[in-house]
Protein: SRPBCC family protein
Amino acid sequence: MKKIKIILGVITVLILAFFLTGLVVQEVVYTNEVIINKPVNEVFSDFQDEELMKEWMPEVKSIETLEEQPNKIGSKYKIVVENQGKLVTMTEEVLAYKENEKLTLHFDAENMLKTDDYAFISEGNSTKILQTTTCTSESYIMSCLFPYFKGALKKMSQQYLENFKKASEAHN
Structure:
């Protein structure tokens, strides 16, 4: 009986710790970067090329324009991606756009709200992309989970940047 009480006590503590995580950690923020051996204007153009995007983000199945703004800010898109064999629809909104310098995208994928802020930094004939990502959720349970998956989310974002580097450098 004593062992059962100890086991139940440990389980209770773990459950409380999990749910307290959502109160303590409101968002997950991480950064990634990559250097591409091309000038910034070419890299910025490649980054927005939908056909090239399918090379470095093969999960993207379709992109549909919902609303296009002349200065890009406020433009909205419907994106369908394949995630573990399941199609997921999300919306993307352009929050900031400064040609050859900055692009900020906000994604709403059901319970995951993600903002990717990309800075394009010219370094001679090369370009550094500095990505700062913020993940939040409207779901309390998802908010509790994000801190435990921060490493996996960061690794996935870095892999996309590496894939983009490879695709952009091969693209003329």
User: Anything to note?
Assistant: Strands lie at 28-36, 60-67, 76-83, 86-98, 102-109, 112-123, 126-136. The chain has a mean pLDDT of 89. The first helix runs from residue 2 to 24. The chain has four helices and seven strands.
